[in-house]
Amino acid sequence: LQAYERRFPTCPLIPMFVASDTVNEYKSEDEAIHVIERRCKLDIDAPRLLKKIAGVDYVYFVQKNSLNRRERTLHIEAYNETFSNRVIINEHCCYTVHPDNEDWTCFEQSASLDIKSFFGFESTVEKIAMKQYTSNIKKGKEIIEYYLKQLEEEGITFVPRWTPPVACKLESSTSHPRRPVSPAINIPDSATKEGLNNKEILNTSSSPAEPTAGTPDDKLDADYIKRYLGDLTPMQESCLIRLRKWLQETHKGKIPKDEHILRFLRARDFNIDKAREILCQSLTWRKQHQVDYILDTWNPPQVLQDYYAGGWHHHDKDGRPLYVLRLGQMDTKGLVRALGEEALLRYVLSINEEGLRRCEENTKVFGRPISSWTCLVDLEGLNMRHLWRPGVKALLRIIEVVEANYPETLGRLLILRAPRVFPVLWTLVSPFIDDNTRKKFLIYAGNDYQGPGGLLDYIDKEIIPDFLGGECMCEVPEGGLVPKSLYRTAEELENEDIKLWTETIYQSASVFKGAPHEVLIQIVDASSVITWDFDVCKGDIVFNIFHSKRAPQPPKKDSLGAHSITSPGGNNVQLIDKVWQLGRDYSMVESALICKEGESVQGSHVTRWPGFYILQWKFHNMPACATTSLPRVDDVLASLQVSSHKCKVMYYTEVIGSEDFRGSMTSLESSHSGFSQLSAATTSSSQSHSSSMISR
């Protein structure tokens, strides 16, 4: 360990190791536990062209070293932060004492490399990574021996074993001089940048301590934590600071408040990588769908105001905002028939946004952190009408969206007066609800809620709604049947197609079986960069890029062309003439990419020739899949699909000059240009041409 520490902050025996910074250090009072995280800067031996395309000169890794002197173990965990949305590198090393001989050290090491996409250079990156990794392993022993010899030359040949604090103090006066240790610090808000090195982050005590006077952002103020965030361990606090700083440095949009960032960390048990992934997906979703402005710009239709039996009603005993939903009195079938799924989803989103706002208000009122709300659901009147299939479909979609974008906002769910039909609904819905959320459900049958352990344990008697036997008048609408005169046909709902992203730079398009949607881009200067970003809103599509030396004819609005399939929900343009032959009149410049419903895809193509490029979204015929006993939202939605021969995409394209190529790649790589390339479906075709980049 003493020898290993000397590798920092730089190591002359590792030329690629340029520098390292300590971003977090924790040491227990008895000095038995020592945890250090470092950010290491590497100059990877990669082709100059690859560095130019990637838009970076250095690569950063994060390394966390956990030394347990009591157990005599050392664990080293490392991962890359640079290009973490394209290449995932994880490494774990473990030093332990041999069980049969205490003078021997056991060393175990494992590592994984997963290349999602890298501008078409996937195989090159794999070779570079394997070369560097193999070289480091071979050189590891040589480096340790070098520093062991250095210690011997300094007269250090023995390190005493750790003992409890009292014994340690007596021993320290007679043992060899110890190297100074830098003071423990929280993760600095200004130091947490994009990454730390994979293998260089074991200890920060290798060099003489430098003054580390903390900046105001080095840690969160204790009063601020107590008032707005709640009890946080030092590690949880550091995770919050790191994730917030990462967003401030890389995200170009609105930065969420600490309370909201904390929700995503809690949803993933403070695993920063997982929390960052779902948070970035949510921020992209909010931007594309204009969710931040929904309370200010959208007014619910009168039908919702009259027949949606839900509303806010004071607060519970813990100060959480209380939302009351009389689901049993609500005509879900009538609402779906009158409004469609999108309007219902939009209304639920506005309820959640209002919930976030009320949590902030209650935090100020009660002087303690309120980060979630309580929902009271009255099922009196629930019957088979509520199990109408399109209604269940809408409910599943709403649950899926809320689970993904509003984690840890439900503090408690009180389900009252559950009838016999409730287990059927619960069986359909529960598999799609997160386990942590499910633990917050309390279900009461009949009048059980009036007894011990019932409502009075959670809600003050003075605010129990009148319809539940309380004294407080509840202004929540009573619901009732939606008049059939307000129903609209499926075609009307389809044509209206109310979407959440009405005001954006994106265009919508419909893709039909046998009628792809195509976009023409004329390139004058070779080496220009065509960039694209699109969301597959409905169905599965195949994305292609073609090149032609001659311009295609303008689309004709005949009975078989765009005229018969253009709709308010999205246009459809076909440019490639049916008499054109692939390979003669036009050529494919990218491998076809199959994109699934719900995926967000982003990419770019460096053009080799001037001429006309055609971006094409084509209907993808899915092979029939065998049924499975495992419930999946995709399976449920697929079975309920109304129009099986129609797909929809929202897309945005841009042409960038070759002189701006590097900057564009940097912004695309950083995953903070407002696009969803950090989605769970982060994949890319390994056959992609070397001049292109595709990511999801």
From TrEMBL:
Write out the ranges of the annotated region (Disordered).
170-191
The record's listing under PROSITE patterns reads: CRAL_TRIO, GOLD, PRELI_MSF1
PRELI/MSF1 domain: which residues? 1-156
Q: Does the keyword Phosphoprotein apply?
A: yes
Q: Report the residue ranges that make up the CRAL-TRIO domain in this protein.
A: 300-476
Listed A to Z, the keywords are: Cytoplasm, Golgi apparatus, Immunity, Innate immunity, Phosphoprotein, Signal transduction inhibitor
GO molecular function annotations of the record? RIG-I binding
Q: Which InterPro entries match?
A: CRAL-TRIO_dom, CRAL-TRIO_dom_sf, CRAL/TRIO_N_dom, CRAL/TRIO_N_dom_sf, GOLD_dom, GOLD_dom_sf, PRELI/MSF1_dom, SEC14/CRAL-TRIO_domain
What biological processes does GO assign it? innate immune response; negative regulation of RIG-I signaling pathway
Summary of subunit composition and partner proteins: Interacts with RIGI (via tandem CARD domain); the interaction is direct. Interacts (via GOLD domain) with SLC18A3; the interaction is direct. Interacts with SLC5A7 (via GOLD domain); the interaction is direct.
Protein name per Swiss-Prot or TrEMBL: SEC14-like protein 1
Q: Give the species this sequence originates from.
A: Casuarius casuarius (Southern cassowary)
